[in-house]
Each structure stands twice: as C-alpha cells, then as structure tokens.
Amino acid sequence: MKKVPNEALLTKKAIEVGQKYALQRGYKAFAPNTSANDKVEVLYRLLVQDGLIVALPPDKEDLPNIKHKLALWIQKLLPADDDLLTS
C-alpha cells in the first residue's frame, strides 16, 4: 500500500462526506458516541455495497487498509486545487 499524502486528513474528510452520503441514502445519523473507526467501517461497507469503491480482499480487510481505501475514494472526488491534495 502506497502512502497517500495527508491520508489522515483525507480519511477525516471521507468520513464527513460519507456521512452526508449515508444520510441522503436514508441511513440514520451516527450516534454521538460512535467511534471514528466504527464510522469508517460502516461507510466503507456502504460504499462497497453501492458500487462506489471496490471491496478489499477478505484477508486485507483491516482498519488501516479500509482507511486507506476511503482516503483514495475522497481523493478522487475532491477538486484538483483542494488544499488536502496540494500540501
């Protein structure tokens, strides 16, 4: 897995955008005490289910790889001049 610049910030942005997407899809909002790791996994599974990202192989489906996958997903959605992509 190749390291993505600003991966942690991209993952945070992916959670934010993913939550909005989930709400538009009819999912209820996450509870205030839902951990970021749980949000990451739920959003990953939703995006895979909807065909927006390709699922990881079962033996590679761990938290660091899922976060990496979400960072790559949001990286493709952001405009080229976004601060998260230029720094």
Provide the structure class: mainly alpha
Q: Strand fraction band?
A: under 5%
Global geometry: globular
Q: What would the CATH topology of the domain at 8-13 and 33-75 be?
A: Four Helix Bundle (Hemerythrin (Met), subunit A)
The counted number of beta strands is: 0
Q: Give the SSE string.
A: HHHH
- Look at the structure and name the CATH superfamily of the domain at 8-13 and 33-75: Uncharacterised protein PF16691 family
Helix content: 55-70%
The CATH architecture of the domain at 8-13 and 33-75 would be Up-down Bundle
| Cα-based radius of gyration, to the nearest Å | 13 Å
N/C terminus separation: 20 Å
- Counting DSSP H or I runs of 4 or more residues, the number of helices is 4
Unreliable segments of 5+ consecutive residues: none
Largest sheet, described in full?
A: none
> What is the typical, i.e. mean, pLDDT?
90
CATH class wording of the domain at 8-13 and 33-75: Mainly Alpha
Task: Walk me through what this model shows.
Helix 1 crosses helix 2 (36-49) and helix 1 crosses helix 3. The longest helix is centred in the N-terminal third of the chain and has 18 residues, at 7-24. This protein has helices at residues 7-24, 36-49, 63-77, 83-86. The relative contact order is 0.21. By secondary structure, it is mainly α. It contains 4 helices and no strands. The chain has a domain at 8-13 and 33-75: Four Helix Bundle (Hemerythrin (Met), subunit A), CATH 1.20.120. It is globular, with a radius of gyration of 13 Å.
